Amino acid sequence: MIIDTIRAEIFKLMHNRWTLFWAFMAAPAATLVFGIVLEVLFVSPGSALSSVRGTALVQYLLDGCAIGSNLLAQLLLIMGAATIFAGEYQWQTWRAIVPRSSRGALMVAKFVAFGVFAVGTILGCTLAELIISILSSLVTRTPINWPQIARAEALTAMGVVGLASLIEALLIAAMVAVGAVLMRSVLASALTAFFALVGLELIASRIPPNEQLPIDVVLPGFAASSVSAWADAMLGNSGSPKAEWGALGLPALGVEFLLFALVSLALFLRQDLSRE
Question: How far is 227 from 232, CA to CA, in rounded Å?
Fold first, then answer.
């Protein structure tokens, strides 16, 4: 039964074309367009920028996988999650949906549907960065060379960053879900998640550094960036102190996602939907 609920949620989202585009496809498209403009207008053969970026294929791909450093992607994912989780309140369709499936299955289906399309966003941004790297090699007349590391290590690094990005996207969706259940509004749930993320970033910037066990490793932004630094270290690019805490970043993001998801589910299970 839950499989049918997931299929229905994905089918519904696929037919909401503008939400699908702006929430999950616009970020890769914007990454590609802005990257092409940057390479064509501001990078020239022999420039300092070209010498740094010309052959950094794996770094381009890591940048594409890491949506934590892509503010536009995060904002669009927030709006997409708000439509998925709060749209039923706005359209007053819960009364028609709830009798057909359990509330738990409905909430799980929404998370799965969001996750499926978030994977598409991550892959799209990665593909955009690959195209940009090829264009960069043409503009700078620099051949694209695979770094002097094992291919398995590079793929592992990209897989780790991609997994962290997916969990971070699901965490964003869980924050939105809590706001949607509490406030029953698309705009309010989106703003709640946005200001929550901004507030967590401000808290992270205020916490004094602690090299033994940084408290801010539990904050989403720091956790995601520490995983990226950890992946960078796999490629031989050392220097960021966050790299040594990268192994804690993935479980930290996972625990935070589960916490917010369970809170949203608990609130949803107790909610009166007779008028929604």
Answer: 9
Closest CA to 161 of 210, 233, 215: 233
Residue 211 near residue 236, CB atoms below 8 Å: no
Global confidence as pTM: 0.89
Contacting residues for 51 by C-beta, under 8 A, at least 6 apart: 140, 142
Q: Which one-letter DSSP state was computed for residue 21?
A: I
Cα separation, 15 vs 253, whole angstroms: 31
Mean pLDDT per block of 10 residues along the chain (276 residues) reads: 90 91 94 86 55 57 80 92 94 87 94 96 91 80 67 82 93 96 94 89 69 63 81 71 74 93 96 78
Q: Are 52 and 116 in contact (CB under 8 A)?
A: no
